[in-house]
């Protein structure tokens, strides 16, 4: 199975530029590891004028339609939207990675998509 990893973390309440940098760093790290498809919600083109509900609806739609896995940034539990993304991923059998799961991701890439669920987080 091809890894298509969606990046999930806190955005609301943070400076846009700081979020872009944070998400871009994770995207670059994943691509360097060999993940061919990384979905960065900061690159979805969501206008600042959109409501939170419209924004999370698009993020969830992209997660559902384009991702096979999700990576949770360290601040995900501080974000209502990231918690919704986690809940969707957990209840629909997605592979969930912690931000520091570099070794797990490399192992998965090297073992052709065979994995065991080693997620450390539960839905709070």
What is the fold's blueprint, element by element?
Layout: E1 4-8, H1 16-33, E2 37-39, H2 52-66, E3 69-72, H3 80-91, E4 95-98, H4 102-110
Helix pairs in contact: 2-3
Could you walk me through the main structural features you see in this protein, from its secondary elements to its overall organization?
The protein is an alpha/beta fold. Helix content is about 45%, strand content about 15%. It contains 4 helices and 4 strands, in the order βαβαβαβα. The protein has helices at about 15-35, 50-65, 80-90, 100-110; strands at about 5-10, 35-40, 70, 95-100. A 4-stranded parallel sheet has the order 2-1-3-4, with helices on both faces. The chain is globular, with a radius of gyration of 14 Å.
Task: Tell me the radius of gyration.
Answer: 14 Å
> Count the strands?
4
Strand order of the largest sheet: 2-1-3-4
Helix/strand order = EHEHEHEH
**Uncertain runs:** none
- CATH classification class: Alpha Beta
Summing up helix and strand content along with how strands pair, one would put the structural category as alpha/beta
Task: Choose one word for the global shape.
Answer: globular
The count of domains is: 1
Helix content: 40-55%
- The CA-CA distance between the termini, in Å, is 29 Å
Average pLDDT number:
87
Largest sheet properties: 4 strands, parallel
CATH topology: Rossmann fold
CATH architecture label name: 3-Layer(aba) Sandwich
How much of the sequence lies in strands comes to: 5-15%
Fourth-tier CATH superfamily name? Hypothetical protein PA1492
* Contiguous helical run count: 4
| Quaternary organization | single chain
């Amino acid at each position: 199975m091809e890894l298509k990893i969606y990046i999930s973390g806190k955005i609301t309440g943070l400076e846009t530029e700081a979020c872009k940098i944070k998400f871009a760093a994770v995207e670059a790290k994943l691509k360097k590891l060999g993940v061919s498809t990384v979905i960065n919600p900061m690159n979805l083109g969501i206008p600042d004028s959109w409501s939170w509900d419209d924004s999370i609806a698009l993020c969830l739609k992209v997660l559902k339609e384009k991702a096979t896995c999700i990576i949770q940034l360290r601040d995900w539990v501080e974000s209502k939207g990231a918690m919704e993304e986690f809940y969707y991923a957990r209840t629909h059998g997605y592979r969930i990675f912690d931000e520091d799961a570099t070794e797990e991701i490399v192992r998965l890439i090297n073992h052709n998509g065979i994995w065991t669920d080693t997620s450390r987080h539960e839905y709070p």
